[in-house]
Amino acid sequence: MNALALAVLALLVVVPGSGAVLAAFPPGRPSVPLALALVVALGYTVDGAVGFVLAVGHVLHPYTFFPVVAAVTAVMWAKALRRGSPRARFAAFRRGVQRRRGILLAGATVIVAIAAVRLAYPPALNLTSSSVWRYWADGREVAAAGRFPAHVLQYGTLYAPTTNKAFLSAFDAGASFATGRQPLPAVGALAWIGSVGVALSLWALGNELGLTWTGVLLPVLTVMDRLAFDRELTGDLLTYKAETFGRMAAFAGVALAARAVRRRDGARDAVLAGCLFAAVAATHLVPLIIAALLVTGVLVGRIVADRTLAGPVRRGAILLATTAAGGPAFLFLPSGTIGLSGAAGSAAAYARFAPGFDPTRYLNAGVLPGHARVVKGTWALAAGRVLRSYATTALHATRHSALARHAGPLGLTLLLGGLIIAVAMALWFPVRLRPLGLAAWTLIAGIVVATWLFSNHYTFYIQAFFGIRRLFDYSSIPIVMLGLGLIEAAALLATSRSGARSVAIGVVVFLIAVSALVLPSARNPVGAGMRAPEVVASLDWIRANVPCDAMILANVHTEGAFEALTGRAALLEGVTPYLRPDVLAPVLRLMLDARAFLHDPIAHSGFLRRRRVTHVVVLRAGGLGYSEPIGRADVAGLRAAPFLRLVLSRPAADVFEVVGARPSPLPAAPGFDCPRSPLAA
């Protein structure tokens, strides 16, 4: 991990985030876990909002971004000092900690351990992911243009950019000003900040839903676990992802929403939660869906527990109004398109494609036209199968395990048993735990129902399997919430018999023991990123030797790797246009033509001339792109082709120069800065 990049970005987030928390809350408020989570989540929101406003105004530059962030931060800190002196805040903090000293110390220890585990992940691990570099390239384009660009260079031509992650792009632009143009240290630091931020937000979420003793195990068992539950969230923290920052802000927002509906003076909390959800809307939409389900469950749980509608409904209306005011603005004010038109109507939007061809399945898995049945209902899932899949995913049951053999009854038990537990919690459990069960069950039911509806409504794979592919990533969270709720209730019951002190000691031992058992499983996987030095060496050669106006044809579909890591254009590079049928059609034609050339270079040599390709790159290591649309390239044929000259052959890549090719000026687009110096780690 690059210490300088980490320190700079941490300060960029923590200083305004701390000011926002201190300005928003009086001394002693909110709880320690929520305050820590909001420092990171609100820091991200402040930086992203400043970058966004400046980019919309076409004035985003280092000499505007840093002064405005500093001015906003100064205003928040000044307001914080008016709300309470440092002495008063410290005294209130000390009193709050003393009441729960053992539990908070154990929780802080676990969070530090999580941070330490993630600190051991080298930035080069980001070379095993393709999407990382699209996020960073988008941010660098905004930074280079000083605004949200009207057009970007992808797939060898100019397209309107997608804006569904515009808030993240604005934040990344500011981050690039702070760290410089070296991508690996920057994304490594961002991955660590996102990982710690998610852990803090989950701890805060558990704490605000009543898990004041066991809440820190929520991040341990969901994002730091490869033993018992689904591993997807844990694996996602290996690299920098937009969804990580979306989850961080979304879970912190749900924690704030839970606090808002619990308190009579919760209007401010509802507004802050709505601001976080608005930022999430233009960071990644999937965490917003999950947050909406959780908040719905919290509201219902609070209504049932308090036997009143007025307070929770009023707080919910404030939260919804704030989100609705900010979210669409973040999505639609930037130049470009939201990029989700294909989700509106599968059959009509994709009518231009031949019958029997699923264009999304081709880009995802390389299934060629005529090789798969594509009609309405192709991907339709029965409700029973959805429940079975949910159970096996949430509990990480392998195909031949005992759990998998009984997945049907197990899935039904999770759904119906979860409802029984949720209702019991709402009616008879201690007051602080009452909304927890319905929040968890609403998430279970929402994931299952949405997965079934999507599979039966859509024709094509990506839309139809949205629930399986994306919502199931969150399948373990409600199971862990319910389990911890039962343990918390048992601990509270035990205090009446054994005394609060002895039970607290037992809980601390339990927290440390479970964390010590689970956390080692989240360490850097053996062998992950082993070939990163070879990949970096090949990229360094491209940076030093390939002309700035080159057009590279790679044997994989990259999303932003060549732009972000070399500053050069690649023909098969750009965001995957699953939900943009207007872009999907020409991109598919391009991919199929490139596939034909790479499978038989001699027979399709004209492809290089038509597409003005100057260099052909065969990647053999790393995760810089997806090989499925192209398949296996004929490397022997490329080496034998008289119109190609091999100029580099290394374990990670072969680079061929197209003989006689004259580079054409690239269309004017930001982001291609053409560095010559080596990549820094």
Q: Beta-strand percentage?
A: under 5%
Mind summarizing the main beta sheet? 5 strands, mixed
Termini Cα gap: 8 Å
Instruction: State the total count of DSSP E strands.
Output: 7
Query: Percent helix among the residues?
Result: 55-70%
If you average the pLDDT, what whole number results?
92
State the secondary-structure class. Answer: mainly alpha
Rg to the nearest angstrom? Answer: 26 Å
- Supply the number of helical segments: 29
For the record, the count of structural domains works out to 3
Q: What this model shows, in words?
A:
This protein is mostly helical and 681 residues long. 62% of the residues lie in helices and 4% in strands. The protein has 29 helices and seven strands. It has helices at residues 3-24, 32-56, 62-83, 86-99, 101-119, 131-145, 166-179, 183-208, 217-223, 232-236, 242-262, 267-281, 285-306, 310-332, 346-349, 359-365, 383-394, 402-405, 407-428, 434-457, 461-464, 466-469, 476-498, 500-518, 532-545, 561-566, 581-599, 606-610, 635-640; strands at 152-154, 157-159, 551-554, 569-570, 615-619, 644-649, 653-658. A hairpin with a 3-residue loop joins strand 6 (644-649) and strand 7. The termini are close together. The mean pLDDT is 92.
